[in-house]
Amino acid sequence: MAPLDLLDLDVPLGDDERQIRSVVRRLVDERVRPYVADWYAEGRVPARELAVEFGALGLLGMHLTGYGCAGASATAYGLACLELEAGDSGVRSLVSVQGSLAMYAIWRYGSEEQKQRWLPAMAAGEAIGCFGLTEPDHGSDPASMATRARRDGTDWLLTGGKMWITNAPVADLAVIWARTEDRVRGFVVPMDTPGVTAREIRNKMSLRASATGEIVLADVRLPADAVLPDAAGLGAPLSCLTEARFGIVWGALGAARDCLHATLDYAVEREQFGRPIAGFQLTQAKLADMAVELQKGYLLAVHLGRLAEAGRLRPEQVSVGKLNNVREALAIARQCRTILGANGISGEYPVMRHANNLESVLTYEGTSEIHQLIVGQRLTGLSAFA
User: In the chain, which stretches have pLDDT less than 70?
Assistant: First the structure.
């Protein structure tokens, strides 16, 4: 029995959603799972090759409509994220940043010319995007960003830096958020623009199968039409983060499921004291608790997906999903490691890799503490951010 079969959780899914899940699962089994341990060990990922393959299957910006995007349901997109992260969090991050951050920002806030120029190529995986919001000194507090954009005639000059930017070392364009004289604005910045430098961040202990970088902007001159015309204030980038968090709600379950699946197989085969360790009460108690949390997280994700499809999903509801599912996924990965014993730290098993990756997932797109404050504000009506 697979870890998600306990409560027959396929029941609320449509045939098209099951089909999309099967296609992505097969892709991960063939194209990611056999190689990802080596990618992780070597600190690399064939991002451009994967982007083209993902684009051919319609996975990039799959929940968006038009411009070569698949127009899939929110739940179908979530299921795809789950299967991708069952392979590796870094691989799902490639898809999430491309579709839910860079593409979504252009799709939601861009001009028709910007959409026509970039979105079809990005949907096909021919152009890779990144999303420049986080800064070296401003992570959880984007309102304090130091990156500035000032007018110079009809042009804009951008100065500043962005940090921990997924896809930056391999990107063709960046959506950069900067403070202007009146508000925060978004800019579409081709990465070959003079003054733009991307430096890959090395020596990561987490998300090693992902290209992460720093972007330096040194008086980058952009034409007037580089501005996202419909992005007014900080609410625009924050709405993009909500899009990305929805995928994380699902994706974290994939990492947890892969850990639990590997641990179940191991516990049935591994013998100590003359019998399989799966037959011991303490092991079964751990497995039962993990399976229950996985089921609960999945039901939460499906519920949020249906709310999104009905146009009723609110940001604090996504925060509930991100807070719960990532926290529980990390707890599952750590508990699985205890069942595998010393083998739990071996690269021959996926558990430690998933656990390390989930440490990053716990932090990006809003730390657990940030989401607790978002939920707390909803509960009390009082902001505790300042």
Answer: 1
Backbone φ and ψ for 161, nearest 5 degrees, come out as: -155, 150
| Residues with a known catalytic role | 365
Beta bridge partners of 129: 173
- Answer yes or no: are the C-beta atoms of 60 and 99 closer than 8 Å: yes
Q: Which domains does the chain have, with CATH numbers?
A: 15-123 (1.10.540.10), 129-226 (2.40.110.10), 235-380 (1.20.140.10)
Task: Identify the pLDDT of residue 4.
Answer: 81
- Cα–Cα distances (Å) from 345 to 125, 172, 228, 328, in that order, read 34, 36, 46, 20
Q: What pLDDT digit, counting tens, does each position of 179-189 carry?
A: 999 999 999 99
CB 290 within 8 A of CB 1: no
Using DSSP's 3-state secondary structure scheme, residue 90 falls into helix
CA dihedral (332, 372, 103, 157) positive or negative: negative
Transcribe 21-77 into DSSP letters.
HHHHHHHHHHHTTTTHHHHHHHT---HHHHHHHHHHTT-TTTTSEETTEE---HHHH
Q: Residue 310: left if φ>0, alpha if ψ -120 to 50, beta else—which one?
A: alpha
Token couple for 49:
């090759």
